[in-house]
Amino acid sequence: MAGKTVAVMGGGVGGVVAANRLRQLLPREHRVVVVDRNPIHAFAPAFTWVMLGWQKAARIVGDLRHLRRRGIEVLIDEVTSLDMERRRLVLTRQEVPFDYLVLSPGVEYGTGNVPGLARAWTFYHLDGAEALRDELEKLREGRIVILIPSVPYKCPAAPYEAALLLDYYYRKRGLRDRVDIRLFTPEPQPLPVAGPQVGEQVLELLSAREVWFGPRMQVQSVDQDARTVTFADGSQVAFDLLIGVPVHSAPRVVREAGLTGDKGWVEVDRDTLSTAWEGVYAIGDVTHIPLANGLPLPKAGVFAHAEAEVVARNIAAQIEGRPESYTFAGQGQCFLETGYRRAALVQGDFLAEPEPRVSLRAPSLFWHLVKAGFARWWLWRWF
Ligand SMILES: Cc1cc2nc3c(=O)[nH]c(=O)nc-3n(C[C@H](O)[C@H](O)[C@H](O)COP(=O)(O)OP(=O)(O)OC[C@H]3O[C@@H](n4cnc5c(N)ncnc54)[C@H](O)[C@@H]3O)c2cc1C
């Protein structure tokens, strides 16, 4: 059997799990090659801790180059195009021909042409979370607006978690009566994919903590000089500090390779994550997986992780001439930290019929400790 090359585009959650699992399963005559422009993998669920100064950025990152010690080839380079005809990744310095390809490039951040949004602060990437920490430290009074400009966005619980943690942060500083916190979203309720009951529970958490919630609010523009957000219905809200979720889209190279479907994301077989191209799989945030309630599977690391396991095992089986037998189950859970050393847990079966079965476990110290332990385990396990 000639040696095969499995290329993995992206060393984020999906890519790191896929590459490690493939390397563990495949004999050394087969190559596992990971390409990422950024050698530093950051654990995103901890970005809110960095934003609040509770965790140093250096404590929540892993170095992708450490995977070389396990026999994984790691190329720190930009994928400039995907040549699907010739089956190769085109990088700035070389090309990587592949027999199998795992696409896990995540999303590209933008502003969706919303004027002024580019200057909003954000905790949606590590540099942004660090920069925001200093602004929050300086802010002693005024209004913080958290703005969700569009769907889908990663980790649907994250902006709500940020709002609740900001409430806690300013209460601890004795400034909460001087800091107003408001969250605006085009969504009809928090976490629509989880159903009305979970939405109601999150609303109760927000209202108990005096976080203003504005549903069905579609941002039209931001005036950073006047410090106002204007919505599609003509209403305006003033802010002292604007925290924005970036507008998410599939990365340019994926779009240019014709890999995206009507929804703007890569369409995959929901059991095996295979695409229309033979031997090419897509996992994680770059995919669109429709659920029984008409909404897409949320963009969350827990799913990228599970999908990577399925794809890696099935590719290894194909290479070794065994039948592919692993399928994606759609079970997932996500922590929603609420401050006071407590976290809630949103969990469920997202592929259930006739609709996803998702519930919210009440905030407790237990889930907070589980999240803290998981963060440590993640970086130890994969790096
Ligand atoms: C604030 C925040 C909190 C979150 N909290 C949670 C949580 O509690 N639970 C949860 O399950 N999920 C959470 N998530 C979501 C989770 O981080 C993502 O769903 C997950 O990282 C997706 O994995 P992925 O492999 O698809 O993409 P990513 O992890 O984003 O990895 C993509 C990689 O591809 C690389 N790449 C892209 N294009 C190129 C190119 N052209 N050339 C080279 N490299 C490229 C990027 O550099 C990146 O490293 C959170 C996200 C954020 C932002």
Structure description:
The chain has helices at residues 13-25, 47-51, 126-138, 158-172, 196-208, 252-256, 301-319, 365-382; strands spanning 5-9, 31-36, 40-42, 61-63, 73-76, 79-83, 88-91, 95-97, 100-103, 108-110, 142-147, 179-184, 211-214, 219-223, 228-231, 236-238, 241-244, 247-249, 266-267, 280-282, 287-288, 331-339, 342-349, 357-364. Strands 5-2-1-9-20 form a 5-stranded parallel β-sheet, covered by helices on one side. Strands 13-12-11-17 form a 4-stranded parallel β-sheet. The protein has 383 residues and is of the alpha/beta class. Strand 12, helix 5 (196-208) and strand 13 (211-214) form a beta-alpha-beta unit. It has 2 domains: 5-107 and 250-329, 3-Layer(bba) Sandwich (FAD/NAD(P)-binding domain); 131-248, FAD/NAD(P)-binding domain, CATH 3.50.50.60. The structure holds flavin-adenine dinucleotide (FAD). The site of flavin-adenine dinucleotide (FAD) has 35 residues, from helix 1, strand 2, helix 7 and strand 22.
CATH superfamily membership of the largest domain? FAD/NAD(P)-binding domain
Structural class, from helix and strand content? alpha/beta
CATH class of the largest domain: Alpha Beta
Number of domains: 2
From the 3D structure, determine the CATH topology of the largest domain: FAD/NAD(P)-binding domain
Q: How many β-strand stretches?
A: 24
Strand order of the largest sheet: 5-2-1-9-20
- Quickly give the CATH architecture of the largest domain: 3-Layer(bba) Sandwich
